[in-house]
């Protein structure tokens, strides 16, 4: 049992199989593992933080806490400041998300935002997502995450860098190496679904009805298709790198 402390967060809610399976695996190896997660599915919440109302924390079970109406970023904030008493955990792990976070999904993802918040607070942080729609292999993905957590705890991460990890939904033994990738691109389809309510009024549901990203080499999606575990290092600095090279921003 290693004397390390881990804060687990997600955007699917404290009750989701992905975070609870990971919790069970990690607590066998590390002295302190605490879940601080939303009380509902907040997938798509992004990096929102609650400024306009007070928040409450509820202890659901031993070492499992939920922030009532809190976002993933709220959970990391209160996790560090309250549950860990202001002492930074050794690592923040966000996930395991039920579904991938690839390409521009990163900007909507509460899973990625959980790791981003950890990074802002100066804690090595990783976001972990499982590439599947059903029959989720969370135990296999938890073993991959355990290995990554060990590597990060041993070697740390570069400053301002956090990791977006996507894991293929295959047995642990069949996974290939880690591939360090770049963020890919989603190929957008119609995502507004139109219905009528029982009174005949139009209602709309925003939903990604199918998985589709471009598969250029060394992108996150490409790596997943090859059976690699995709690791995209993200930077808190969102500046477009072409500006750093002195190229005019208004085009030709
Ligand atoms: Mn989610």
Strand content: 25-35%
Contiguous uncertain segments of 5+ residues = none
CATH superfamily assignment? Survival protein SurE-like phosphatase/nucleotidase
Please provide the ordered H/E string of secondary-structure elements.
EHEEEHEHHEHEEEEHEH
Give helix % range: 25-40%
Cα(first) to Cα(last) distance is 59 Å
**Class computed from helices, strands and strand pairing:** alpha/beta
CATH architectural label:
3-Layer(aba) Sandwich
Number of strands: 11
Overview of this structure, please?
By secondary structure, the protein is an alpha/beta fold. The protein has one domain: Stationary-phase Survival Protein Sure Homolog, Chain: A. It has seven helices and eleven strands. The protein has helices spanning about 15-25, 70-85, 105-110, 110-120, 140-155, 220-225, 240-245, and strands at about 1-10, 30-40, 55-60, 65-70, 90-100, 125-130, 160-170, 180, 190-195, 200-205, 230-235. The strands form two sheets. It has a nine-stranded mixed beta sheet with strand order 3-4-2-1-5-6-7-11-8, sandwiched between helices. Helix 1 packs across helix 5 (about 140-155) and helix 2 (about 70-85) runs parallel beside helix 4 (about 110-120). The chain is globular. It starts with a strand and ends in an 8-residue tail after the last helix. Bound molecules: manganese (II) ion. The site of manganese (II) ion has 6 residues, from strand 5.
């Amino acid at each position: 049992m290693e004397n390390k402390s881990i804060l687990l967060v997600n955007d699917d809610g404290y009750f989701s199989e992905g975070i609870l399976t990971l919790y069970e695996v990690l607590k066998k190896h590390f002295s302190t593992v605490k879940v601080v997660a939303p009380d509902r599915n907040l997938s798509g919440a992004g990096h929102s933080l609650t400024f306009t109302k007070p928040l409450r924390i509820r202890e659901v079970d031993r070492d499992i806490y939920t922030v009532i109406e809190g976002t993933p970023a709220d959970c990391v904030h209160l996790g560090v400041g309250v549950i860990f008493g202001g002492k930074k955990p050794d690592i923040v792990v966000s996930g395991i998300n039920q579904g991938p976070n690839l390409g521009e999904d990163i900007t909507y993802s509460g899973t990625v935002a959980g790791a981003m918040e950890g990074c802002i607070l100066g804690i090595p942080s990783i976001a972990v997502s499982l590439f599947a729609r059903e029959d989720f292999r969370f135990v296999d993905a938890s073993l991959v995450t355990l290995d990554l957590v060990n590597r990060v705890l041993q070697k740390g991460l570069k400053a301002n860098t956090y990791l977006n990890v996507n894991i293929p939904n295959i047995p642990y033994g069949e996974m290939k190496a880690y591939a360090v990738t770049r963020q890919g691109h989603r190929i957008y389809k119609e995502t507004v679904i139109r219905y009528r309510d029982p009174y005949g009024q139009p209602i709309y549901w925003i939903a990604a009805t199918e998985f589709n990203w471009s598969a250029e080499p060394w992108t996150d999606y490409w790596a997943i298709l090859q059976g690699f575990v995709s690791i995209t290092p993200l930077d808190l600095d969102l500046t477009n790198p072409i500006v750093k090279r002195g190229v005019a921003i208004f085009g030709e």
